[in-house]
Q: What sequence folds into this?
């Protein structure tokens, strides 16, 4: 038995006026001119991936498991969200076959940080790094992503019954 899940997340950038700002993708803090506007740490990559895992199991989305109306989730590390989703995968008797993700933004550049992101995700999903794919693309300067107003991520996962 196999199951496929798809997840998508998008967050706006915000200039907090701080001397050092960053964004977090795949659990990696990346220096950037702006920060992410979000209730949690705003890691779009991990949010999309967690939603893909939950979706494959028909268990809703991360908003149902970690509502943004709860102060307990304020500034929450998204790796906690991912580990929660993976615990449900294991609880239902599945394992990760692979995960394929894409980040869409003009900046920051993802390539220099891709291996660290893959390592974090592989560790959290208790799988080999060769099962984790991360790609990045721009929006060719079109729309809100192209104007650098935010970032979007897509994730697809394949699960197999253990």
A:
């Amino acid at each position: 038995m196999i199951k496929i899940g798809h997840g998508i997340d998008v967050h706006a950038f915000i200039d907090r006026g701080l001397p050092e700002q960053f964004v977090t993708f795949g659990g990696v803090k990346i220096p950037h001119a702006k920060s992410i506007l979000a209730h949690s740490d705003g890691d779009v990559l991990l949010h999309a991936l967690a939603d893909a895992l939950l979706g494959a199991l028909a268990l809703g989305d991360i908003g149902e498991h970690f509502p943004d109306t709860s102060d307990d989730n304020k500034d929450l590390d998204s790796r906690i969200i991912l580990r929660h989703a993976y615990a449900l995968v294991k609880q239902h008797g599945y394992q990760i076959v692979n995960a394929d993700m894409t980040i869409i933004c003009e900046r920051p550049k993802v390539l220099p940080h891709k291996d660290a992101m893959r390592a974090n995700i592989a560790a959290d999903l208790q799988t080999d790094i060769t099962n984790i794919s991360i790609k990045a693309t721009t929006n060719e300067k079109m729309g809100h992503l192209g104007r650098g107003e935010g970032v979007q991520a897509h994730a697809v996962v394949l699960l197999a019954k253990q």
